[in-house]
Each structure stands twice: as C-alpha cells, then as structure tokens.
Design brief:
about 100 residues, mainly alpha, 4 helices, about 65% helix, elongated
C-alpha cells in the first residue's frame, strides 16, 4: 500500500523556489518593469513617430508584468509536488553506484 502525502499528515514537499516558473515569472517581471519605466520616462517624439504614436515600451512592459503575475499565480495555485519515493529511490541508486574507498 502506498502512502500519499495526505495520509502522512497532509504535508506535501513542493519544488518551491526551484520551480522553473518562478524564474520565468521573475525574469519576465523584471524586464516588464524596466520597459514600463522606460515607457514612462524615456519616451521621445522620435520614438512615437517610429511606432505610429503608440508607446511600445509601456504597452510591452505592461503585458510582460501581467504575464509574470500569471506565472506567479499559476505557480501558487498548482505547485510542483515532489515524489518523495522517487527521490529516495534515486538516492539509493546513487549510493549503490558510488565507488567506495577500499
């Protein structure tokens, strides 16, 4: 009979900060904030002429911040649950294959 995380006291081991979605959200969010700042501060008349009078940096930054928030919410709502049994089996195999000093 297998023991699920719920039968072990309801505690689940999640990937947490090591989840790739956390890094993606952080990077996209950082770039988005930079673009929002550049769109608010560094928008010139020449830039407006090039983009057809649309503040491209501002809008791209806002979209990137929204996508980053989406990734962060997704990570929070559906965390990656680590299978403890698979981790223990991998450790046992690694220990068995490790050369022992003679």
């Amino acid at each position: 009979m297998s023991s699920s995380p719920e039968s072990d006291g309801g505690r689940k081991h999640t990937a947490g900060a090591y989840d790739v979605r956390t890094f993606i959200a952080g990077l996209i969010g950082l770039y988005g904030v930079v673009l929002v700042i550049m769109g608010l501060v560094g928008n010139s008349a020449d830039d407006n002429t090039k983009t057809g009078h649309v503040n491209a940096n501002l809008w791209a930054g806002i979209v990137m911040v929204v996508v980053a928030i989406g990734f962060a919410v997704w990570t929070w709502l559906r965390p990656v649950v680590v299978d403890e049994r698979a981790v223990e089996e991998a450790r046992a195999i690694e220990e068995a294959n490790r050369p022992h000093p003679t």
